[in-house]
Design a protein that fits this description.
By secondary structure, the chain is α+β, with helices and mostly antiparallel strands. It folds into 2 domains: 34 residues; 93 residues, Nucleic acid-binding proteins (OB fold (Dihydrolipoamide Acetyltransferase, E2P), Beta Barrel). It contains 3 helices and 7 strands. The longest helix has 31 residues.
């Protein structure tokens, strides 16, 4: 085999090794970032498989359950007749819209202690998205009229 053929073979082998390494890193990255959306009832019915997966769980925040300590917050999610204690120990402050009766989405893992350990939180205030009531400021016909010149 000539020197030129050996160089092409070595280059091809190195290229294949790099591509396989990148494919492996991409696959493991996707596996680690994948999360499953489950309801609270489904979470309680998952058994031991719930402890090994990254999960997303949604519900309404139980009134009076929010306890804030710096960047950490503890609260209870409620969905129909199911409850789920949630602990958030994140690097960012919890959302300002995390209030009593608001809808919240927790992303993290379910612990064997029965508590959901959230790494990310999303919350929205239900009243913010409700339609405006007639007679409230900003709903009169004059506020929606076009400007004429």
């Amino acid at each position: 085999m000539s020197n030129e053929a050996k160089k092409y073979l070595q280059f091809g082998g190195a290229t294949v090794a790099i591509l396989l390494s990148l494919a492996y890193l991409a696959y493991t990255g996707v596996q680690q970032s994948k999360s499953y959306y489950v309801t609270i009832k489904e979470l309680h019915g998952m058994g031991n498989t719930a402890y090994a997966k990254r999960l997303r769980v949604a519900g309404n925040v139980q009134p009076g359950s929010i306890k804030r300590t710096g960047l950490n917050v503890e609260f209870v999610l409620v969905e129909q007749d199911q409850i789920l204690p949630v602990v958030y120990n994140g690097t960012e402050a919890p959302p300002d819209t995390l209030k009593d009766n608001s809808q919240a989405l927790a992303d993290g893992s379910f612990g064997r202690d029965g508590v959901f350990h959230a790494k990310q939180l999303q919350a929205k205030c239900a009243s913010k998205y409700a339609p405006a009531q007639p007679g409230t400021p900003g709903t009169s016909a004059s506020s929606t009229s076009a400007i004429t010149m």
